[in-house]
Write a structure and sequence with these properties.
elongated
Amino acid sequence: MTSAALVFLLLGIRAHRLGSREDCGCFGTIAASRIGIGMHVRNGVLLALGATVVVVAATGEAPSTAAETIVRTPAHALITALAVLGTAILGALILRSPRQADAQNPHVGASLIGPDGVVVDPMQRALRGRAQLLVFVRPGCQSCVRASAAVTARSADLARIVDARVIVASGDGAAASAPPDFDGDAVHVDIAGAVAERVGATSARPTALLLGTDGHVLMPHAQGLDEVSTLMDVIVAASHAGT
């Protein structure tokens, strides 16, 4: 019973973390349970009961009631408490399902289309050791055009320590290409603004943020042409200081 409960618990946790919400079928059609917290609690209780039975069998005692089993000796009480504690810890781990983890890490799955048509994941590039300067712009914004031009003008210096990317969003149904105003090697297309949303960029444009090699966004964001230019000045100065 104990080993079966442990197997059910571990398999249920694995299925839950992989996103399954199907009926587990552990007890067939008699008592079908949808994979989720309730099923894990049930399996944890079965595991705790099974552990208690194993301890009782190992000591060679035959108590008359379940309550007597738990309280007859300190060893029984200790084993039962440990089993319940283990179940509680597993339950806490289960709560960190993949979807919840993605919400805490907003960079997961966010990609850009580069000027050469190559898909770029700025988070992965950052974690591989290249900090990412992300400058978000929009069509019809003259400050954005100037910010984009500034990135191009300083590209050589910026490239010493960061990958600088000018990012323009492409809405639903729009062509996955940058508007003519932002034509350049640094311009990337953000499909439906997914990257901006995932990294928490504000609605102001231009807005720039620095994505560090630890996967975190350095705060605060630079908003407006002046702040974006200042951020680039700091990065350029840092690049020269390191030489």
